[in-house]
């Protein structure tokens, strides 16, 4: 197995650990401090922004060079930044530098961010009112449906090992939810 396998394993494991920690931590904060969903979203986004800036700091010269070479990106970044909040402007600019070099990508990203904010509110509302276990149930169900739809819609071939892996993974997730 190549190093991509191990990188994928680390990334998936990191996602699972942080995802499990986050909803439980948010539930604890909701119950101990009585913050609202909007306050939780603001705090989470502030921490996300700070971490993004820290990771992007080494790339500031490249970002500035990109802005000089492509001045139209300034208006695109402002459009995205104003809809998402000024604090996220730098993060989106860095993201744009890495992945979204075409105008169409900015339009898609703009609409994605609007949907993402509604999704964040629903996630915080679910944790606040129903708890982390219910959120995990919803998110796991969404993940299973998403994987199955992707396999069906795009016609991805799935080997027996892949099917077994999905049963073990999703079975373990559902077992953890049902018997927690």
Automatic annotation (TrEMBL):
Chief place of localization: membrane
GO terms, molecular function: 3'-phosphoadenosine 5'-phosphosulfate transmembrane transporter activity
Keyword Cell membrane belongs to the record: no
Transmembrane segments: 6-25, 46-69, 89-112, 133-154, 160-179
Cellular component terms per the entry's GO annotation: endoplasmic reticulum membrane; Golgi membrane
Keyword check for Chloroplast: no
Subcellular localization: Membrane
Alphabetical list of InterPro entries matching this protein: SCL35B1-4/HUT1
Keywords: Membrane, Transmembrane, Transmembrane helix, Transport
Membrane topology category: Multi-pass membrane protein
Protein name: Uncharacterized protein
Source organism of this protein record: Reticulomyxa filosa
Taxonomic lineage of the native organism: Eukaryota, Sar, Rhizaria, Retaria, Foraminifera
């Amino acid at each position: 197995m190549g190093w991509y396998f191990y990188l994928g394993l680390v990334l998936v494991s990191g996602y699972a650990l942080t995802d499990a920690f986050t909803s439980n931590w948010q539930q604890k904060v909701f119950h101990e401090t009585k913050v609202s969903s909007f306050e939780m979203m603001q705090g989470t986004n502030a921490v996300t922004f700070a971490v993004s800036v820290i990771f992007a700091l080494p790339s500031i010269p490249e970002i500035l060079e990109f802005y000089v070479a492509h001045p139209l990106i300034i208006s695109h970044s402002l459009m995205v930044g104003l809809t998402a909040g000024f604090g996220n402007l730098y993060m989106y600019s860095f993201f744009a530098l890495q992945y979204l070099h075409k105008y169409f990508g900015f339009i898609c990203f703009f609409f994605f961010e609007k949907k993402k904010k509604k999704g964040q509110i629903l996630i915080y509302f679910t944790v606040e009112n129903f708890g982390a276990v219910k959120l995990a149930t919803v998110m796991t169900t969404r993940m299973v449906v998403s994987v199955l739809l992707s396999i069906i819609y795009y016609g991805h071939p799935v080997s027996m090992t892949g099917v077994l892996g999905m049963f073990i993974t999703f079975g373990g997730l559902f077992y953890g939810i049902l018997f927690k």
